[in-house]
Amino acid sequence: MGQADNFADSYTYTSLDGFLKMNLVEGGFTPYLIFGYGFSLFSDGVQREGFFPSSETSRTYFGGIGVNVFTSGKVAINLQSSYRMMNESDGFDHLQHLVGIGYSFGAGDADKDGVSDKKDKCANVPGLKEFEGCPDSDGDGIIDKEDKCPEIAGTAEFQGCKDSDGDGIADPDDDCPDEPGSIEMNGCPDTDGDGLSDAIDECKEEVGPAENKGCPWPDDDQDGVPNKDDLCPDEKGTAANNGCPELSPEIVQTLNDFGSRIYFPANSAQIIGKKTREVLEEIKNVLIENPKGNIIIEGYASSDGDEDYNIDLSMRRAEAVMEYLIVLGISPVRLELEGYGESDPVGDNSESKGRAINRRVQFKPKRD
Q1: pTM as predicted
Q2: CA distances for 273 relative to 208, 264, 270, 285, 318, angstroms
Q3: What's the domain range around 47?
């Protein structure tokens, strides 16, 4: 209803319509098309004959465009223009412009899934009514927002994920999802039982240390001493001798034959005499000719003095021999000491000759 002016004439304007409106897009700015049919009246106050009580009332067809601009989820400003065609001679085809405010009643359904926003627990994502508006993409009965594997059907036990190998560990947490394993190995097996998961073990069938990626250290000479620790990697030796061969029994016997000619004065660890020094020179030569053998120098004493003193004296005698050999050029890493005091005598301690030969050193190969 309103007032319309047409140059010199003034009319009371009234229209009553029904229409269809089609939104072109969705969102906060929504343009639309409108089509309708209704009645329009331009009244100048003069009664006229016609189909209606007044011929000024005309059946009207119209079409137009408009836009809704939403200021909130429910309130919108409406702008609309339409062209109206009247079929009575006393009317005017005309443009009608409209400004208004719209309000949407009801709870709304933002994601168009048939569940009202008020009840929809996933209001912005289309879902299913049985899940209160939330989606279940993989159809496993667990809604996506609670499903750790929303694209792969799984079980509730594993929060929507699968356990392909049946080892009790969900696939996303399983380093070997297709091979049954243990929790300790993050779902992988340890085929060789070396405490290293098959996922990182480069020698799955052989026991090996973690620092060598699960592979055994190479031992080319098969002496039980790995190459990395073996001072003689191409010759079979012993662990006590760092992978090198020990001195043969024949060489040890030779050393002891020489050693039997090393004499010490009573109550002394001093090396004296030209012959003793010559014997030590011969021992040095044997060791140089057999550079990979290590020895233990054993010191002994006669029964003169008490037991503790004799043990100390025997150690000093072995040490004197070792220091002399080092001066002659033998590496100290090849030599070790032991003192046995008056034990294991080779002569009769009741006689001076027997006590003299008990003041001695002996040699043996270094072993475990």
Answers
A1: 0.42
A2: 56, 10, 10, 19, 17
A3: 2-103
